[in-house]
Amino acid sequence: MAKRVLVLCGNGVATSTVACKKIQDYMANANVRCEVIQAKIGELASYADKVDVIVLMAMGATLPDTVNTPLIKGLPFLTGMGLKETLEEIKKHLQ
Amino acid sequence: METIASYFKIIFDVGPNVVLPFFIFLFALALGTKASKAIRAAIFIAIALIGIKMVVAFMGDNLGPAMKALSKNSGLKLDVMDVGWGAVAAAIWATPMGAIGIPVLLIFNLVLLYFRVTKTLMVDIWNYHHLITAGVLTYYATDNVYLGFVGMMLAAFITWLTADWAAPFLQKFYGLPGISMPTLSSISELVIAAPINELLDRIPGVKNIRGNFDSVRKYLGLFGEPAVLAVIIGLVIGIMANYSIKDSLNLAMNLAAVMIILPKVVAILMEGLMPIQEASSEFLQKHLGGREILLGLDSAISIGHPSVLTAALILTPFVLVLAAILPGNQMLPFADITVIPFRIAFVVALVNGNVFRTLVIGAVVLIQVLLCGTVTSPVLTKIFLAVGGKMPEGAVGVASFSGGSLFVTYAIMQTLSFILSGVIISAVVFGLFLLVAKSQQRKAIQLMEEEEENTYAAIQNKSTPL
């Protein structure tokens, strides 16, 4: 089964779309099969334990202690700085 | 003047589903995007515009009659439908000004950076829609294209300068060095929040209340799930409208569908705009000439702080009750009830996470949103209909928590239309804001530094290894 990455942002529309698209393109190029899920921060509880890695576009957020899924901060998707490293890190969790 | 008028007419004749994509295509090419990518972007913009219209029409078909029954059976006169910020943004992008807005604002931003008026480089093209909305609303309110452009640039000017002002405490609170957040839907509230916070600083007793709201998330957590929230709202409206159980349940499910599908359709708009976003961002960064800048990003990156979520959970049911009892309000909050976190994200940083203060200020902000939304609804409705929207049966107009419901946008619209009440309110609020801005900025940073020192001292005392 393809591994899953959850992209979380404030309302699941703008910033998370940018991240989703870039992750999908990058993984497709690298031949990594994965499913990218886009959600609002409020929906976290419903997804947290069903995914392999979480990309957080909301910087102020803290995840509940019950969530053990690896977490990656998604700021590079917006600034472009360190984007490749971030994508590589996501890739590691998806292989 | 003639040419502009005929240009606007031609565009409306061809239809926004064709014209905006065409402009986006040309604009993407001009910025150096590959033709294949530009075509795809343009088509996705059209898909999004069509999709948003479909979902909003479905919402109108279901919510409209319920609103009518609600006012007949409960006496609540809530006949302005909250179609959500996405629908407003789509309507605005579809106007002739929407297409030209992006290049105008790009250049305006570079000019202001060049002359060091602002430090914010707004690479977040997506949220240009808030600024363009201020322009289009002004244009429709005054029937003057030039005033429309003045309104748009005024909105940009206020947004970027306020973003500069807020950047120091937002950076510190959210841990985002080098960044500012020129998102008008979050910035606008600071203009109201700063004076109120200054007032709270001066009231003995109230001054030190922080409040303990830890249990809130346990009991109100359901309100954080948009689908569940929509079902609850649907059921309450259905029952109050004297619907049968069967009809209430159907209304609830249909509204839940809208709540989940609408953002997904709006996300298609973002997908279409992405090549423009990337190319514009590159264009902006290339033409900077080594100026000191703050990278202006979407305020979405600040949503999710526990205090923001806690306060939003309390304010969500509050705004529904408020809508029913607030004199002068006609808006029935629905599609935008999930954006409350955006309205308070910066307030939380200003008050250093104090949930009590966030609630007090948040309540005032929501009162303002409902009232300004009601007042500016006729103009927005005119635009909504002009770009091919359909008036829902049972409603007299549309509104959202965005557009004219934002104080800054309301102030620009009313002032440029020379509506006396609006001019006075705007002058007073902006006057108070300017009066306290400096001290509020200083205090916000000071509060965070004190907290840091206390935490550090506590760690030292315990001498626990980090």
Automatic annotation (TrEMBL), chain A:
Keywords noted in UniProt: Transferase
GO BP, sorted A to Z: phosphoenolpyruvate-dependent sugar phosphotransferase system
InterPro entries linked to this entry: PTS_EIIB-like_sf, PTS_EIIB_2/3
GO molecular function: protein-N(PI)-phosphohistidine-sugar phosphotransferase activity
Stored SUPFAM superfamilies: PTS system IIB component-like (SSF52794)
Residues covered by the Phosphotransferase system EIIB component type 2/3 domain: 4-89
Source domain of life: Bacteria
Keyword Metal-binding: no
Name recorded for this polypeptide: PTS system IIB component, Gat family
Native source organism of the sequence: Pelosinus propionicus DSM 13327
Automatic annotation (TrEMBL), chain B:
Pfam families in the record: EIIC-GAT
Domain PTS EIIC type-2: 8-442
Localisation: Cell membrane
Parts of the chain that traverse the membrane: 6-29, 41-63, 83-113, 147-167, 227-245, 251-273, 293-326, 332-352, 359-387, 407-436
Cellular component GO terms, alphabetical: plasma membrane
Top-level taxon in the UniProt lineage: Bacteria
GO molecular function list: galactitol transmembrane transporter activity
GO biological process: phosphoenolpyruvate-dependent sugar phosphotransferase system
Topology versus the membrane: Multi-pass membrane protein
Entry keyword set: Cell membrane, Membrane, Phosphotransferase system, Sugar transport, Transmembrane, Transmembrane helix, Transport
Protein name as it appears in the record: PTS system, galactitol-specific IIC component
Source species of the chain: Pelosinus propionicus DSM 13327
